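Bumping with the actual sequence this time:
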Amino acid sequence: MEKLSFNLDRFSEVPLYEQLYQYIKQEIIEGRIEYGCKLPSKRKLSEFLKISQNTIETAYEQLIAEGYVESIPRKGFYVLAHENLEYIKKEDSIVIQEEKKEKRRIQYDFHPNWIDTEHFPFNKWRKYAKNIIDKQNHSLLLLGDQQGEYELRKEIANYLYQARGVRCTPNEIILGAGIEILLQQLIFLLDKKTIYGVEDPGYHVIWKILKNFTYRVDSIPVDEDGVRVDEIENLNLDVVYITPSRQFPSGSVLSVNRRIKLLNWASAKENRYIMEDDYDSEFRYSGKLIPSLKSIDQGEKVIYLGNFSKYLIPSIRISYMVLPKHLMKKYKKELSFYSCSVSRIDQHILAQFMKEGDFERHLNKMRKIYRRKLEILLQVLKPYQEKISIMGENAGFYIIVSVKNGMNEQELVEKAFRAKIKVYPLSDYSIQKREENPPKIILGFGGISEKELPKAISLLLKKWEIH
C-alpha cells in the first residue's frame, strides 16, 4: 500500500494526527485495510497528504499503542492480525462466521447451478489470452462498441443460427456482464407501466430485480407442459419472462401448442413481449435439442437471452440478448449512454475461442461428461424407485427427486446437512411459498466429480434412511 485516500479537514478543531488515526482505525475495523497489510511509510504519506512526518508518526504511535498496528524495524508498519480485534459490528460478525463455518463443514453441495470446472480448457484459453494481450492490441485498453465487440457478436450470431435456429445479425445483439445487467437495460427500454410476469417456481433473481424496478410483477404457475399460458391471458400481463426449452427449476418443456398460443398472445397487442431465457439448452441427453421459441417467432415478439455461464464458467460474466429490430432502434436512440459492461479483452478471447471451433468442441466434451454424471446418479438411485421418483432427467445439470420416506422437506434438508451435504428443496424457488407433498428436492450433479458422486448420493440416501 503506497497511499491512503483520505481527505483531511484542515479547518476542523480535531487535530490532523487524530483525524488520520481515526480514519486508519476505522478502515482496519471494517476490513478495508486487511490484516497483515503494510501501511505507507511516513515519508511517502507525508508527501501524499502534504502534512509533516511528525503528524503521521503521532497517528501511527497511537495505532501501535492500541494494538491495531505494529512497527517492524527496517521493514515498516503493518496491520496486526489479532484474533480478538473487533473486525466489524457484532451482529454482522456472527452472521459471517456462521457462513464460513457452514462452507467449511459442507463436503458435498448439490447446488443446481454449479458446473464442472475440472475440465475447463485452460491451455486453449491461455493461448488465446496470450495472443490478445499484446502491445499490438493496445486499442483494446479503450472503451469499445456500446453493444459489445463486433467480432464476438458475429460469432454469437453464427452460433445461434447453427445451434438454436435463431436468425439475427450482429447488430441485433447486445452484450452484458450477466443477464441481470441486460434485464435492467430492458426495464429502462420498455414502458414504465409495463406489467411483468415470471414463472413460479422460477429463477427468483429475476423476480427480485423486476420487483425493485417496476410497480407490478405477477407470478405465473408452471405444470408438466411448461408455463400456464391461460394464466398469462387472465393476468393482463405485458411482458413475460420464461425458460421454455427447460423450465427452471421444474425441468418441464413448453409444449408446442402452448408456444403457438403464447406467440399469438404476444402478437395481439403492440407492446407485448416474451423474454426467452435459453440458459442451458445445449445440455440435452435424449432426443434432439428443443428448438428455441425465438426460432419460430414471426412477429418480432421474442427477446432472446443467453449466456456462457453454463457452457464455460460463471465468472466469465458474458451474456447477450437479441432484440427485435424495432426495439433495437429504440435502444440505440434512448440508451446510447450505456457502455458495454464486459471486458473487451475477455470478449476477444471468447470470440477467438468460438471462431477456431474450440467452443463447439468444449460443448461436445462437457455434454458427454454431464451425461456420464447423470447416468451415475440414476444408477445409484435405481434400486430405490419405491421411495424416490425422478423428474427432469433428460437435460441440464440437476434432477428433482420426490422423496417418499415419511420425512418432510425441512427434515430432509436438515438430515443431509448433518452429513455435511447441502441440498435444495423445490420450494426455495417458489414465489408463492408452498411445500410439495411428497417433498421435492433438487439434486445438482454438475459441481461434484464423477468419482465422488456415488459416495455423495449413497451417503445422502443413508441419512434419509432409504435402504
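The C-alpha cells above came from a reply further down the thread. DSSP finds 15 helices and 16 strands in the chain.
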